[in-house]
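ok trying again, last paste got cut off:
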Amino acid sequence: MKCDNNPRKLPKGHFTAHVGLYLKFNVFMSFYRDAVDKLYREVSEGNETADSIAMPLLFMMRHTMELGYKFTITEICQLNGTSYNPQNDGHSFENLHRRLKKEFDTLGQNGGVSDNKKAGFYEYYKLTETAMTWFDNEDRRGVNFRYPESSFKHDKKVNLLEVKNKFDEAMTLLTVTVDVITEGMQT
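nice, full thing came through this time. structure:
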């Protein structure tokens, strides 16, 4: 039986993805975040069950946050006049969270951040820590949501609404920090 992967008979060009065109952390992060929102919407609107969506959704949330950390750290390092290789930090959210604060503090010590922006950063940094801790506790190495050999017990349950709320709070810090810091700067 042949699947109809084009039920609306759209032109072939509609399905052509330019995967080499958007090779920037902020763009990848944005695309993944949109995919997370679309996948979650399927559950929140009752079109899919939480069980059928959980693993890909949680994997994409975790990956999106990782991209957010690495994007923000990269940009702050540039403002600090230093370089950053995201691969050196691996997949540990604890390390990435600590590194983000270190780089932000360095920028603040160098006069690159006003006091009110520092206060906002630390407020959202604490909120982000909640999601970071949850994901690190559930999937420290970034593999439990990707492979069926996860370390989850048979009766393990996750409330996707609670995780999505934590994810959204974390993504506030990981998507707007650079814009807030550079607001009004000459480029």
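cool. The chain is about 60% helix and 0% strand. The chain has one domain: 26-180.
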